[in-house]
Amino acid sequence: MITPLFPLVRTALDAVGARVQALALSFDRRYRLDPGELRGSLSAGTKLVCLASPQNPSGVAAPATTIRETLELMEEICPRAYLLVDETYREAAYGDDPVADTAVTLSPKVISVASLSKCHGAPGLRLGWAITLDPRLRLQLITGKFNTVVSCSPVDEALALKVLEHRASILAERRVRLDVGLRRTAAWARVNNDFIEWVRPDAGALCCVRLRPEVFDDATVARFYRALAVRGARVANGIWFGDEARVFRLGFGLLPMAELGDALAALAAALKEVADPARSSR
After folding, report:
1. What would the pLDDT profile of 243-261 be if each residue is shown by its tens digit?
2. Number of folded domains that form the chain
3. Domain-ending residue, one of 128, 150, 167
4. Do 116 and 200 fall within a single domain?
5. DSSP state of 95
6. How far apart are CA 154 and CA 151, in angstroms?
7. How confident is the model at residue 276, as a pLDDT?
8. Residue 262, CB-side half-sphere exposure with 13 Å CA sphere
Protein backbone atom coordinates (compact mmCIF):
# COMPACT_ATOMS: atom_id res chain seq x y z
CA MET A 1 0.00 0.00 0.00
CA ILE A 2 1.05 3.56 -0.68
CA THR A 3 0.65 5.84 2.35
CA PRO A 4 -0.64 8.25 3.54
CA LEU A 5 -4.05 6.88 2.63
CA PHE A 6 -7.67 6.80 3.69
CA PRO A 7 -7.45 4.57 6.77
CA LEU A 8 -10.45 2.36 6.05
CA VAL A 9 -8.60 0.97 3.02
CA ARG A 10 -5.96 -0.40 5.36
CA THR A 11 -8.44 -1.72 7.91
CA ALA A 12 -10.44 -3.51 5.19
CA LEU A 13 -7.35 -5.53 4.27
CA ASP A 14 -6.44 -6.09 7.91
CA ALA A 15 -9.95 -7.44 8.51
CA VAL A 16 -9.44 -10.26 6.00
CA GLY A 17 -6.02 -11.17 7.38
CA ALA A 18 -3.92 -9.76 4.55
CA ARG A 19 -0.22 -9.26 5.24
CA VAL A 20 0.29 -5.62 4.36
CA GLN A 21 3.45 -3.67 3.63
CA ALA A 22 3.36 0.10 3.35
CA LEU A 23 5.49 2.44 1.26
CA ALA A 24 5.37 5.91 2.79
CA LEU A 25 5.42 8.97 0.55
CA SER A 26 6.73 12.18 2.06
CA PHE A 27 5.47 15.73 2.23
CA ASP A 28 8.95 16.98 1.30
CA ARG A 29 8.70 15.10 -2.02
CA ARG A 30 5.16 16.38 -2.57
CA TYR A 31 3.73 12.88 -2.14
CA ARG A 32 5.01 11.80 -5.56
CA LEU A 33 5.51 8.08 -6.09
CA ASP A 34 8.82 6.80 -7.46
CA PRO A 35 7.96 3.29 -8.74
CA GLY A 36 11.55 2.20 -8.21
CA GLU A 37 11.06 2.56 -4.46
CA LEU A 38 8.43 -0.19 -4.63
CA ARG A 39 11.02 -2.80 -5.58
CA GLY A 40 11.99 -3.59 -1.99
CA SER A 41 8.33 -4.06 -0.99
CA LEU A 42 7.42 -6.50 -3.76
CA SER A 43 8.02 -10.24 -3.91
CA ALA A 44 6.85 -13.20 -5.98
CA GLY A 45 4.10 -13.67 -3.39
CA THR A 46 2.66 -10.15 -3.71
CA LYS A 47 -0.99 -10.37 -4.76
CA LEU A 48 -2.12 -6.76 -4.80
CA VAL A 49 -0.59 -3.29 -5.00
CA CYS A 50 -2.88 -0.43 -3.88
CA LEU A 51 -2.60 3.26 -4.64
CA ALA A 52 -5.00 6.18 -4.96
CA SER A 53 -4.95 8.76 -7.73
CA PRO A 54 -5.68 11.42 -6.63
CA GLN A 55 -4.70 10.48 -3.10
CA ASN A 56 -6.77 11.01 -0.01
CA PRO A 57 -5.55 13.08 1.89
CA SER A 58 -3.17 14.98 -0.43
CA GLY A 59 -5.07 15.21 -3.72
CA VAL A 60 -1.85 14.33 -5.57
CA ALA A 61 -2.37 12.16 -8.66
CA ALA A 62 -0.11 9.52 -10.17
CA PRO A 63 0.53 10.27 -13.86
CA ALA A 64 0.06 7.53 -16.44
CA THR A 65 3.85 7.16 -16.81
CA THR A 66 4.16 6.35 -13.09
CA ILE A 67 1.39 3.75 -13.29
CA ARG A 68 2.98 2.16 -16.38
CA GLU A 69 6.35 1.94 -14.63
CA THR A 70 4.64 0.39 -11.61
CA LEU A 71 3.00 -2.22 -13.85
CA GLU A 72 6.33 -2.99 -15.52
CA LEU A 73 7.96 -3.52 -12.13
CA MET A 74 5.11 -5.78 -11.04
CA GLU A 75 5.38 -7.80 -14.26
CA GLU A 76 9.05 -8.36 -13.44
CA ILE A 77 8.67 -9.30 -9.77
CA CYS A 78 5.06 -10.40 -9.18
CA PRO A 79 3.43 -11.03 -12.56
CA ARG A 80 0.28 -12.57 -11.03
CA ALA A 81 -0.45 -9.49 -8.89
CA TYR A 82 -3.06 -6.85 -9.64
CA LEU A 83 -2.77 -3.07 -9.31
CA LEU A 84 -5.77 -1.49 -7.59
CA VAL A 85 -6.12 2.22 -8.33
CA ASP A 86 -8.60 4.18 -6.23
CA GLU A 87 -9.90 6.82 -8.65
CA THR A 88 -12.64 8.19 -6.41
CA TYR A 89 -11.54 11.81 -6.98
CA ARG A 90 -10.31 11.43 -10.59
CA GLU A 91 -13.12 13.46 -12.17
CA ALA A 92 -13.01 16.20 -9.53
CA ALA A 93 -10.97 18.55 -11.69
CA TYR A 94 -10.66 22.30 -11.20
CA GLY A 95 -12.27 24.78 -13.59
CA ASP A 96 -11.10 24.02 -17.13
CA ASP A 97 -8.41 21.52 -16.09
CA PRO A 98 -8.55 18.29 -18.12
CA VAL A 99 -9.76 15.13 -16.40
CA ALA A 100 -7.06 12.47 -16.21
CA ASP A 101 -7.72 9.27 -18.14
CA THR A 102 -8.66 6.23 -16.09
CA ALA A 103 -5.83 3.80 -15.38
CA VAL A 104 -8.03 0.79 -16.16
CA THR A 105 -7.20 1.00 -19.89
CA LEU A 106 -3.47 0.57 -19.26
CA SER A 107 -3.58 -3.14 -18.48
CA PRO A 108 -5.91 -6.04 -17.66
CA LYS A 109 -3.98 -6.15 -14.38
CA VAL A 110 -5.49 -2.81 -13.28
CA ILE A 111 -8.60 -2.61 -11.12
CA SER A 112 -10.21 0.83 -10.94
CA VAL A 113 -12.49 1.58 -8.00
CA ALA A 114 -14.60 4.67 -7.40
CA SER A 115 -18.03 5.71 -6.16
CA LEU A 116 -20.78 8.30 -6.39
CA SER A 117 -19.83 9.72 -3.01
CA LYS A 118 -17.26 12.35 -3.99
CA CYS A 119 -17.20 13.71 -7.55
CA HIS A 120 -20.94 13.26 -7.96
CA GLY A 121 -21.87 14.48 -4.48
CA ALA A 122 -24.15 11.54 -3.61
CA PRO A 123 -22.55 9.87 -0.56
CA GLY A 124 -25.89 8.84 0.91
CA LEU A 125 -26.42 6.27 -1.85
CA ARG A 126 -23.37 4.27 -0.72
CA LEU A 127 -22.77 2.97 -4.24
CA GLY A 128 -19.48 2.38 -5.99
CA TRP A 129 -17.84 0.12 -8.53
CA ALA A 130 -14.80 -1.96 -9.41
CA ILE A 131 -13.82 -2.14 -13.08
CA THR A 132 -11.33 -4.47 -14.72
CA LEU A 133 -10.62 -5.60 -18.29
CA ASP A 134 -9.76 -9.09 -17.02
CA PRO A 135 -12.92 -11.19 -17.68
CA ARG A 136 -11.99 -13.90 -15.18
CA LEU A 137 -11.40 -11.41 -12.39
CA ARG A 138 -14.64 -9.60 -13.27
CA LEU A 139 -16.55 -12.86 -12.87
CA GLN A 140 -14.79 -13.49 -9.55
CA LEU A 141 -15.76 -10.03 -8.30
CA ILE A 142 -19.39 -10.53 -9.33
CA THR A 143 -19.45 -13.91 -7.59
CA GLY A 144 -17.95 -12.33 -4.47
CA LYS A 145 -20.67 -9.68 -4.45
CA PHE A 146 -23.45 -12.26 -4.82
CA ASN A 147 -22.02 -14.24 -1.92
CA THR A 148 -21.84 -11.22 0.41
CA VAL A 149 -24.20 -8.29 -0.17
CA VAL A 150 -26.23 -10.12 -2.89
CA SER A 151 -27.57 -6.86 -4.35
CA CYS A 152 -27.77 -3.17 -3.64
CA SER A 153 -30.98 -1.37 -2.76
CA PRO A 154 -33.10 -0.99 -5.93
CA VAL A 155 -34.14 2.47 -4.74
CA ASP A 156 -30.51 3.51 -4.37
CA GLU A 157 -29.68 2.09 -7.78
CA ALA A 158 -32.61 3.96 -9.40
CA LEU A 159 -31.43 7.22 -7.82
CA ALA A 160 -27.84 6.47 -8.86
CA LEU A 161 -29.00 6.04 -12.45
CA LYS A 162 -30.57 9.51 -12.30
CA VAL A 163 -27.32 10.94 -10.96
CA LEU A 164 -25.37 9.34 -13.81
CA GLU A 165 -27.89 10.61 -16.37
CA HIS A 166 -27.13 14.15 -15.13
CA ARG A 167 -23.43 13.43 -14.68
CA ALA A 168 -22.16 16.13 -17.07
CA SER A 169 -24.03 18.99 -15.42
CA ILE A 170 -23.23 17.76 -11.90
CA LEU A 171 -19.51 17.51 -12.61
CA ALA A 172 -19.47 20.89 -14.40
CA GLU A 173 -21.09 22.61 -11.43
CA ARG A 174 -18.72 20.96 -8.99
CA ARG A 175 -15.69 21.89 -11.11
CA VAL A 176 -16.52 25.56 -10.55
CA ARG A 177 -17.06 25.07 -6.83
CA LEU A 178 -13.81 23.15 -6.40
CA ASP A 179 -11.86 25.73 -8.40
CA VAL A 180 -13.13 28.56 -6.21
CA GLY A 181 -12.36 26.58 -3.05
CA LEU A 182 -8.86 25.76 -4.25
CA ARG A 183 -8.12 29.39 -5.11
CA ARG A 184 -9.41 30.48 -1.71
CA THR A 185 -7.19 27.91 0.00
CA ALA A 186 -4.14 28.86 -2.07
CA ALA A 187 -4.59 32.52 -1.13
CA TRP A 188 -4.90 31.55 2.55
CA ALA A 189 -1.70 29.49 2.29
CA ARG A 190 0.20 32.45 0.80
CA VAL A 191 -0.92 34.78 3.57
CA ASN A 192 0.04 32.27 6.27
CA ASN A 193 3.27 31.12 4.66
CA ASP A 194 5.27 32.02 7.78
CA PHE A 195 3.43 29.32 9.70
CA ILE A 196 2.52 26.61 7.20
CA GLU A 197 3.43 25.01 3.89
CA TRP A 198 1.12 23.03 1.64
CA VAL A 199 1.05 20.69 -1.34
CA ARG A 200 -1.21 21.89 -4.13
CA PRO A 201 -3.52 19.03 -5.13
CA ASP A 202 -3.97 17.85 -8.72
CA ALA A 203 -7.70 17.17 -8.29
CA GLY A 204 -10.27 16.56 -5.58
CA ALA A 205 -11.57 18.49 -2.61
CA LEU A 206 -8.64 17.96 -0.22
CA CYS A 207 -5.05 18.99 0.36
CA CYS A 208 -2.27 18.48 2.89
CA VAL A 209 -0.91 21.32 5.00
CA ARG A 210 2.13 21.10 7.29
CA LEU A 211 2.93 23.21 10.34
CA ARG A 212 6.45 24.51 9.81
CA PRO A 213 8.93 22.59 12.03
CA GLU A 214 10.97 25.74 12.64
CA VAL A 215 7.90 27.41 14.13
CA PHE A 216 5.98 24.57 15.80
CA ASP A 217 7.55 21.97 18.07
CA ASP A 218 5.64 18.84 19.13
CA ALA A 219 4.03 20.62 22.08
CA THR A 220 2.74 23.51 20.00
CA VAL A 221 1.42 21.09 17.36
CA ALA A 222 -0.81 19.56 20.04
CA ARG A 223 -1.80 23.04 21.22
CA PHE A 224 -2.75 23.99 17.67
CA TYR A 225 -5.36 21.21 17.45
CA ARG A 226 -6.78 22.21 20.84
CA ALA A 227 -6.94 25.87 19.84
CA LEU A 228 -8.70 24.94 16.62
CA ALA A 229 -11.31 22.85 18.45
CA VAL A 230 -12.08 25.78 20.75
CA ARG A 231 -12.87 27.84 17.64
CA GLY A 232 -15.28 25.22 16.32
CA ALA A 233 -13.13 24.29 13.33
CA ARG A 234 -11.79 20.85 12.53
CA VAL A 235 -9.12 19.37 10.27
CA ALA A 236 -7.95 15.76 10.00
CA ASN A 237 -4.76 14.97 11.91
CA GLY A 238 -2.15 13.38 9.65
CA ILE A 239 -1.65 10.49 12.06
CA TRP A 240 -5.04 9.18 10.97
CA PHE A 241 -3.69 8.74 7.44
CA GLY A 242 -0.30 7.34 8.39
CA ASP A 243 1.51 10.68 8.29
CA GLU A 244 2.99 12.87 11.03
CA ALA A 245 0.90 14.95 13.43
CA ARG A 246 2.14 18.28 12.09
CA VAL A 247 0.53 17.46 8.75
CA PHE A 248 -3.23 17.84 8.50
CA ARG A 249 -5.83 17.34 5.79
CA LEU A 250 -7.78 20.43 4.82
CA GLY A 251 -11.04 20.07 2.91
CA PHE A 252 -12.19 22.93 0.69
CA GLY A 253 -14.98 21.34 -1.36
CA LEU A 254 -17.84 20.95 1.12
CA LEU A 255 -18.56 24.25 2.85
CA PRO A 256 -20.22 27.23 1.16
CA MET A 257 -17.56 29.82 0.37
CA ALA A 258 -18.59 32.17 3.19
CA GLU A 259 -18.28 29.34 5.73
CA LEU A 260 -14.99 28.21 4.20
CA GLY A 261 -13.70 31.74 4.68
CA ASP A 262 -14.73 31.65 8.35
CA ALA A 263 -13.06 28.27 8.79
CA LEU A 264 -9.82 29.45 7.20
CA ALA A 265 -9.89 32.53 9.41
CA ALA A 266 -10.23 30.26 12.46
CA LEU A 267 -7.25 28.24 11.23
CA ALA A 268 -5.17 31.39 10.86
CA ALA A 269 -6.13 32.59 14.34
CA ALA A 270 -5.16 29.25 15.87
CA LEU A 271 -1.81 29.31 14.07
CA LYS A 272 -0.97 32.78 15.36
CA GLU A 273 -2.12 31.98 18.87
CA VAL A 274 0.12 28.98 19.41
CA ALA A 275 3.17 29.83 17.28
CA ASP A 276 6.26 30.59 19.37
CA PRO A 277 7.15 34.20 18.52
CA ALA A 278 10.84 33.55 19.23
CA ARG A 279 10.92 30.81 16.59
CA SER A 280 8.59 32.38 14.04
CA SER A 281 10.11 34.13 11.02
CA ARG A 282 7.69 36.98 11.46
Report:
1. 999 999 999 999 999 999 9
2. 2
3. 167
4. no
5. T
6. 8
7. 62
8. 8
